[in-house]
Design brief:
CATH topology of the largest domain in chain A: L-amino peptidase D-ALA esterase/amidase
CATH architecture of the largest domain in chain A: 4-Layer Sandwich
Helix content of chain A: 25-40%
Order of helices and strands of chain A: EEHEHEHHEEEHEHEHHHEEEHEEH
Radius of gyration of chain A: 21 Å
Largest interface: A-B, 66 and 65 residues
CATH class of the largest domain in chain A: Alpha Beta
Number of domains of chain A: 2
Largest sheet of chain A: 8 strands, mixed
Oligomer: homodimer
Shape of chain A: globular
Strand content of chain A: 25-35%
Structural class of chain A: alpha+beta
Distance between the termini of chain A: 43 Å
Number of helices of chain A: 11
Chain lengths: ~400, ~400
Amino acid sequence: MKYEFDGNPVMPKGFTCASRNCGIKEGDDDLALFYSDTKANAAAVFTQNLVPGAPIIAGREIIKKAKLQAVVVNSRVSNVGTGEEGVKRAYRMGVAAAKELACESDEVMMSSTGVIAVELPIEKIESGIIGMKADLGSDPLVGARGIMTTDTYAKAISVTTDDFTLTIVGKGSGMIEPNMATMLVYAFTDAAISAKDLDAVLRRGVNKSFNMLSVDTDTSTSDTMVVMANGRAGKVDMQDFEEVFESSCIRMTEMLARDGEGATKLLRIEINEAVSEKEAKIYARAMVNSPLIKTMAHGCDPNIGRMLMALGKCFDNTLDVDTLTLSVNGTVVFADSVKTEFDEPALRQSIDSEEVIFKIDLALGSGSATAYGCDLTHGYVDENAAYYSS
Amino acid sequence: MKYEFDGNPVMPKGFTCASRNCGIKEGDDDLALFYSDTKANAAAVFTQNLVPGAPIIAGREIIKKAKLQAVVVNSRVSNVGTGEEGVKRAYRMGVAAAKELACESDEVMMSSTGVIAVELPIEKIESGIIGMKADLGSDPLVGARGIMTTDTYAKAISVTTDDFTLTIVGKGSGMIEPNMATMLVYAFTDAAISAKDLDAVLRRGVNKSFNMLSVDTDTSTSDTMVVMANGRAGKVDMQDFEEVFESSCIRMTEMLARDGEGATKLLRIEINEAVSEKEAKIYARAMVNSPLIKTMAHGCDPNIGRMLMALGKCFDNTLDVDTLTLSVNGTVVFADSVKTEFDEPALRQSIDSEEVIFKIDLALGSGSATAYGCDLTHGYVDENAAYYSS
């Protein structure tokens, strides 16, 4: 099956979205609606953080029905650490969206993202949402705009095959090491897929993409990924669908990583021939999270010592320095237990780009994994050491 | 028992040290000797990194005898990732020291610290060490000088009680999350203590101090802590000794944390009333390592959301938001499941100091732990994104 990512993403048949400012942010869009004009099968995964936001507490109940017709999202205030009252306000947000869209309130998923331990300004949302149905359109980038926090641009991609369209809208650039899902990501398709199949495809896809993304090891209290399938395009080949779903998730993961707070580069860590997939994932995560790996990428320094260190600190894994091969952007830098002779100026120049690929071959087994992240820069420190930060 | 840390640290009876430049660094001291004029009982702990340096491979053999008369350390080149030849050179370094000091070469511990995957310039050490015995003196700060890498100052402390003296010399400011020991730390005492007791006191002390220190989550391939007791001061009360040993290790831990790469503040995370000590340690480490906690301390921002997030991302721990109390520098900021009313300008001013203490009371059990770290700054990025970094 041939497919490509659309330069101008579109919503699938029957799906629309809108964004507006309801007064939570100064002037930027802070409220988004995603809508299917018929009920859709749905699945979702949420953060594993022990202090989940109020929308997560509500969302876990709502997704049990496995049917959704809309998603409503506000940005700037996350409704986390807000007690019982926070949960009530999360439900009120869903009710307001259902009223505006004339659908069932238990078929609306709510998300909130932004500062923690601040009360959700629910009245602003309730009044601001009125009349928003009239704004609904087919450009997913419009919906993406309303869910942004520290992102530097709105993120949406879509793929249209002969049989169906899949569209993914996402946000998130700090407090990112999802576990179960990513920051906020919504996928929409007109393919006809049962809720059960959707759930399975979602979990497999997330494990290979968003769950292998880390900006700063810090798992948000609000991470959510929702997928909705309204069936408008009829039945599809499930293998085709899963292939498109997985590669779209990876593409969005790379977009989120590259736009990590302060980031100037995307890091991709590819671990091959580890003892097991489990060990490969541990190695990949250790490397992508290491501040010393992140800063060496930033400084264009092919620092072999730090790569050895980052692998070696996975104490419970298996490693044999004698069979280990390390390469950076295609250049082998360590093999046969010593540093290789390589053209250092050329390699430094190659690291001075948008993407740095670390490839580690362990020659121990058949486990492989890829992790996605970004470099560590002054920009990250500036963004997060601000006097009033989120 | 009353005791205090000496403003001018001294070596215990029978111990001396010296540093000099042997040509590995441009001009600063790069070679240090620590010497006991009689054989001492000894114990040591080393990094758990899977890619241990050559001196660690040799050191694990040497410590089996539980007797040492000297420690020889070079800085600037760590002798890690250097294959078989590296191990040979590590032993040659011990032989050179033994020859100079006229002691047994299997009673000399070697350490190397600095860049990884670079060959140890052993000839410089072998010729540079000649005549160094004549330099041996009683100021531990002189020995501390020769083992420095990115440290901003030489670190040594000593305590003299009525019965004995304990002196600790340490270094390390990046690639620090020891596991088993810290970067390089050497403790010397004239107390008479069996090797077995020394080993037990060392392990207990390290677990409460250096193993709870983290600058950047990155565990070095060279971490070593050695303790030597030459018995010159005779038998001592073991409880007294352990008390002094533990508090001295904690003091040195705080010094290393505060001097972490780019650091401007010491962070102390105190976890109380967790379900178990194990969970308390996991919480303490998660907080001290969180880039978002480190940057909020740097920015003097009492960000409650990040504290909740950092606790909540310890997925396998137990947490009840309703019984949780968070305080920063003595001010309660979160209790009864919501943010408290507190004097925010005053708290910001209090965080704008050398030390930030996060106290977390979980009210779930009797587990407690303290972790030590530092803030994350431009300085860290600068130091580690340099074009040629270590």
